[in-house]
Structure formats: C-alpha cells, structure tokens
C-alpha cells in the first residue's frame, strides 16, 4: 500500500508541475511561482520517498540483519535539505518582487489551475492517509504532511489572486511567496527532526510505550517486567523487554507466557519485531540494566 501511495504522489506531483508551470508562464504571478516551487519540491521528495520505501521493504540479509528500514531516515534528511534550498530560493525571489512588483495577468487561468490543484491534492492526501492506517511509514507520512499543507497553501494562493483581481496591492503576491518560504523551512525542520530520531533509535512516543505496558500487563502470569526498549526503523517497530514469571514455572510454561505476551503485542503492532527475555520473579538483576516496572 505504501508503494501505491508513493506512485500516486509522483503522478500527482508531475501533473501539478505541468499545470502550474503553464499558469506561471501566462500569469507571471509570484504566488503561482511559490506554489510551483512547492510542487517541484514535493515531487522530488515523493521520488526519494518511493525509492526509499522500495529499499526499506527489502528483507534482511546476511549484511543487514535488521533490514533496510533506516534508509527512510536517510532519505528524509535529503528531503529536508532540498526543502531548505527551495525556501532560500523562494525567499530571495519574493524579496526581489517586493522591490520590483509585477502585475498578475490572466487571473482566470491562475484561479482555475489552483482549484484543479486543490482537488487533485485532496484526493492524494486521502489515499495516503488510508495507506498510513494500513502500514505506518515515515516516508509516506512526510509526503502526506506536505500535500496536506499544500491544500492550505493553494487556498491561500487563490485568496491572494482574488485580492489582486479586485484591486489589492501588488505586494500581496510576493508576501505570499515569502510566507511559503517560511513554511518550507518549518517543514524541513519537522522532517529532519523525525529522520534524526529514527537514525538515532529514539524511543517510541510515551503513548505507544504506555500501550505496550498495558498489553504486557494483561497476562496474569507476568509478575513484573523491566528493560522495555523500543525503536522504529522504516515501517518496522522493534520492542525489547524482560518479563518476570513464577520461578517454579517449567521452561515450557514460561515459554508459553512469553508467546502469549508476544501475540498480544502483535495485535496492535503487526509490523513489529519483538524480543522477550524471561526471568524468574524475585531474582536480583544487575543494577545497570534493571528498570523495574511492576504491575498494579
């Protein structure tokens, strides 16, 4: 599903580039230029995301025992760098238009193209959100965030064009371009931060860890658990923890408890890699590793 969303994003991006390029040539609008720059950036990001997803879905091999999921984080860093460059270009172009404002021509064409962009982008975002529900992916999430914001920026561009059509000041057009540059920088920061979190194995969010703890606690044979460690790599979530069971349990019964806990976790995290170590309850652990979380 992630690959389908990736291909759809590339096709939509190419359509928007063609439509907005045509509109910019005929209108010379800084608002259209800002939206065109956004679409070029989004399409480049979609291409990187698509190939990153393909690589991340490759199974683990002898040299990459944990798979290839972190390629999504590397691709996201390139996406952030590309967006930063686009922001600088657009900011400088907007400043130049402030000092040398240009009137917008053929408002009707510009408005029609922007309406087309809003409708096409809305359809893509709905498809991406559906894909994310099926299989979470940083690459698809980044793409979806861009295109969701594109709907708002396209609406803002429409508003700027309408104001110009009804005699608004010429500085509205470059003001929108500079505002878009600021949005690009903010988006680049958000993507870069998530990419670094993935590459540095940052713990999953507290609400996710809380859900893991709740699922483990459902098994009445788990007396306590400790050393819960989590991370994400591409679309795969990794969960490691130690559980404590009755020291009189046989190895077979202790193993059955471990399997039950794993199955409960897999219901909520179907793409997870889970490693559970079983300890006898009440046996002291090394202080450097012990992080006890006893059940109520």
Q: What is the share of helical residues?
A: 55-70%
Shape: elongated
Strand content: 5-15%
The multimeric state of the shown protein is single chain
User: How many DSSP-defined strands?
Assistant: 4
Low-confidence segments:
none
Task: Write up this protein.
This protein has helices at 2-27, 30-56, 71-99, 107-134, 138-165, 172-199, 206-217, 251-268; strands at 224-233, 236-245, 272-280, 292-294. It is of the alpha+beta class and 296 residues long. The protein folds into two domains: 2-199, Alpha-lytic protease prodomain-like, CATH 1.20.1510.10; 206-294, Cation efflux protein, cytoplasmic domain (Alpha-Beta Plaits, 2-Layer Sandwich), CATH 3.30.70.1350. The protein has a four-stranded mixed sheet with strand order 3-2-1-4. A hairpin with a 2-residue loop joins strand 1 and strand 2 (236-245). The longest helix is centred in the N-terminal third of the chain and has 29 residues, at 71-99. The radius of gyration is 25 Å and the shape is elongated.
Could you list some keywords that capture this structure?
single chain; 296 residues; alpha+beta; Alpha-lytic protease prodomain-like; Alpha-Beta Plaits; 2 domains; 4-stranded mixed sheet
Please specify the SSE layout and strand pairing:
Blueprint: H1 2-27, H2 30-56, H3 71-99, H4 107-134, H5 138-165, H6 172-199, H7 206-217, E1 224-233, E2 236-245, H8 251-268, E3 272-280, E4 292-294
Parallel strand pairs: 2-3
Antiparallel strand pairs: 1-2, 1-4
Helix pairs in contact: 1-2, 1-4, 2-3, 2-5, 2-6, 3-6, 4-5, 5-6
């Amino acid at each position: 599903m992630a690959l389908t969303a990736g291909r759809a994003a590339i096709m939509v991006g190419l359509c928007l580039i063609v439509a907005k390029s045509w509109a910019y040539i005929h209108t010379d609008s800084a608002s259209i230029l800002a939206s065109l720059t956004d679409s070029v950036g989004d399409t480049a990001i979609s291409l990187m995301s698509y190939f990153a997803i393909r690589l991340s879905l490759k199974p683990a091999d002898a040299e990459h025992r944990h798979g290839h999921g972190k390629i999504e984080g590397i691709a996201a860093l390139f996406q952030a760098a590309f967006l930063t460059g686009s922001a600088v270009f657009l900011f400088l172009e907007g400043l130049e238009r402030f000092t040398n404002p240009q009137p917008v021509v053929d408002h009707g064409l510009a408005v029609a193209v922007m309406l087309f962009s809003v409708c096409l982008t809305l359809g893509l975002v709905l498809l991406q959100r559906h894909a994310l529900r099926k299989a979470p992916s940083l690459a698809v999430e980044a793409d979806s965030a861009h295109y969701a914001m594109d709907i708002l920026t396209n609406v803002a561009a429409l508003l700027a064009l309408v104001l110009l059509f009804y005699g608004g000041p010429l500085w509205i057009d470059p003001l929108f371009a500079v505002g878009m540059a600021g949005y690009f920088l903010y988006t680049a920061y958000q993507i870069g931060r998530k990419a670094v979190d993935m590459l540095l194995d940052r713990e999953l969010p507290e609400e996710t860890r809380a859900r893991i703890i709740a699922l483990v606690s459902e098994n009445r044979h788990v007396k306590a658990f400790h050393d819960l460690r989590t991370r994400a790599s591409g679309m795969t979530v990794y969960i490691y923890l130690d559980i404590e069971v009755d020291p009189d349990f046989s190895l077979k019964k202790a193993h059955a408890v471990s399997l039950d806990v794993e199955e409960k976790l897999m219901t909520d995290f179907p793409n997870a890699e889970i490693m559970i170590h079983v300890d006898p309850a009440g046996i002291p652990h090394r202080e450097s590793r012990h992080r006890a979380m006893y059940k109520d």
